[in-house]
Design brief:
This is Putative aspartate-semialdehyde dehydrogenase. GO terms for molecular function: aspartate-semialdehyde dehydrogenase activity. With 68 residues, this protein is α+β, with helices and mostly antiparallel strands. It has one domain. It has helices at 6-12, 15-18, 48-67; strands spanning 25-34, 37-45. A two-stranded antiparallel sheet has the order 1-2. Strand 1 (25-34) and strand 2 form a beta hairpin. The longest helix is centred in the last third of the chain and has 20 residues, at 48-67.
Length: 68
Amino acid sequence: MSANNKQESVSKLTPAAISGSLQVGIGRYKKMSLNNDPVYSVLTVGDQLLWGAAEPLRRMLNILLGKI
């Protein structure tokens, strides 16, 4: 978790800072309401190559290795 100031945001909430990890940085969030249900709008920063391409392969490999 980072402090809520510009220096922390600029240094820790960038694609370069998150790159290579499966962590997702949360830049800011805002509570909203939809039909009286709480809904949150969230700005995220993450490594899209890992999550978009490698993560499904990693999960499938773990499933296969667990069943062999």
